Amino acid sequence: MPFSLHREIQVLHVDDDPSITDLTGTFLEREDDRFAVQTATSADEGLENINDRPPDCVVSDYNMPGTDGIEFLQAVREEYPDLPFILFTGKGSEAVASDAIAAGVTDYLQKGSGTERYELLANRIRNAVRTRREAERADRQEQLMRLTEFNGDTGGFELDTESNTVVLTAGTRRIIGRRNQHEMSLEEALKLFHPDDREDIQHTLDKVLETREELYDTWRLQPGDGEERLLDMTITPVVENGGEVTKLRGAGHDITEREEHERTARQRQKQLSLFFEESPLGAVQWDSEFQFERMNRRAEEILGYSEAELCGESWEGIVAGDDRGQVGDAVEKLLDADGGTHVINRNVRKDGEAITCEWHNRVVTGADGDVQTIFSKFQDVTDRERRKTELEEYETIIEALSDAVYVLDEKGQFTYVNDELVELVGYDRETILGNTPSLIKDEEAVQRAEQELGRLLSSDGPEAVTFEVTVYPREGDPIVCEDHMGVLPYDGEEFNGSVGTLRDVTEQREREAELRQTTNQLQGVIDSVESAMWIRNTDHEYVYMNQYHRDLFDIADDTDIAGKRVADLHSAEVAEKFQQNDQRVYETREQVEIEEVIQTDDGRQYFLTRIVPLFDNGSVYATCGIATNITEQKEYEEKL
User: Fold this and answer.
1) Where along the chain do its domains lie?
2) What's the pLDDT tens digit per position in 130-170?
3) What is the pTM of this model?
4) pLDDT by residue (tens digit) across 227-283?
5) How is residue 473 annotated by DSSP?
6) CATH says 283-377 is which class?
7) Span 529-639: which CATH code?
8) Rounded CA separation 139/158 (Å)
9) Least buried of 3, 390, 412, 441, by fewest C-beta within 10 Å?
10) In terms of CATH architecture, what is 399-509?
11) Within 13 Å of residue 559, how many CA atoms lie on the same side as its CB?
């Protein structure tokens, strides 16, 4: 791509005869529209003009009253040694020419009566100005190269057009991997580039010589280390005092990494755009004022609006009135800090329906720290929040019915007791731990517990036993308790101890009626949910399933699912998938959300499944799952 600077040429013509300056100025400006001629009728006036605004070239008469042309030239050279100065005189002599050359004149030309002299003057002015400008440009390039030589990706060179020898700077030697080679032939230099680029490089060099214009382009460098580099190169002609171009100077900039970064950035932008559009979550891009700029299809489905309808609108238009204060605080927090916010609030769809949505928002700032844009992803969690509220109510009831818990090691010594057991027996925790149950039980109760433990350890024994014992607190009357005991997981083949709960039967009996009523109510609520719900323990045995789950897999209502493994109730394929999902929760100890396809008696169906771990004293003892049938939604999406 060529680069040429065509700008105005300011000419100052000094002559004591105004008719000559007027005639000369008229001809020059007609000859070349780049010429802009100013005039002065004395050397003193000319110096004032130069000091106010130096021209590109001075044209001066020799024989002027006061200060003659040579003296004027000498005065100019004291302040402007490189300013082009052409002595244009009517009286020429070898002595005058000799004095002019000694004073540093750029050119010497005698006046004449024909137009040819003015054409020659115009040509001399153009050449003088071009030579100076190209010299200044070369100087600037050389200075720039000296500055950029400190960067490992920039270098320079100089080509002698007569000998075809290329002199290399330290930066260029680094780029081509020849640190000790200070010069090479042009033929050798061209071989460092891709074969398909060599002819184009040679053509560019020839064009610079021909047009005397600076050119630049990008070529593929193959320095021989097995890697191909992209090199941005600028080539500039060096014009000598005689007007001949004998050298070409160039600067090369290795842009390989920059191009790779830009390619990566373009690819990343494409991926982000694809992710934005195809995300299963709603996605919104806001401007710095938190007004809609862009939204994906899922966001349109959730909110009921099209992107065009919301573009330029504020966030307030989709937030329920009572929640605007909470969301406004989150918006201010987000705009004041470089980070993200998470908020759950009620949104209002286009049709007026209020839904609960979970929003994750992140701000993007520029180099100056100002907010450029905000990205949000969100999902409709109306059903989830409703189920969460129900589960929290259920958990509150369970916590209110908590029992005294104990853990015994393989020697029968207490290793853990909870606050309820401490309160039940009246001993402090330090006294209980390390002691045996004989501290709070009589001999008969101890023997009964040992018998029940023996049942648990037998090959065909149950997994847990429940029996009544009498507990003797530190103070007060004996308490009849229900002891529910099980065996801790084995450490290899070694018995690891037992765990149990003690419940005051009297209080339990009083609560049982209330619990049955509450449980029945909760069961009714859970069974009415249009989602499959279940609880499975670490042995992949069902603890609970609602009616929807039974109906989904055609499990008879009179089938007792307690203790049944998933393999007992489902096909091998479904059982394996359920076990894998549960195992993932046990390993991560976190909620998982899975979109899966399950083969049921009604065929293949799509479910959005969320499984959470259930903890007991920090340990996961079961998983609770909720699977929402999204088959119709998926079929609808596939039709779209």
Assistant:
1) 2-132, 149-259, 283-377, 399-509, 529-639
2) 888 877 766 665 665 554 554 557 888 888 888 898 888 88
3) 0.31
4) 888 888 889 888 765 567 888 888 888 887 777 777 765 666 565 565 567 778 888
5) -
6) alpha beta
7) 3.30.450.20
8) 13
9) 3
10) 2-Layer Sandwich (3.30)
11) 19
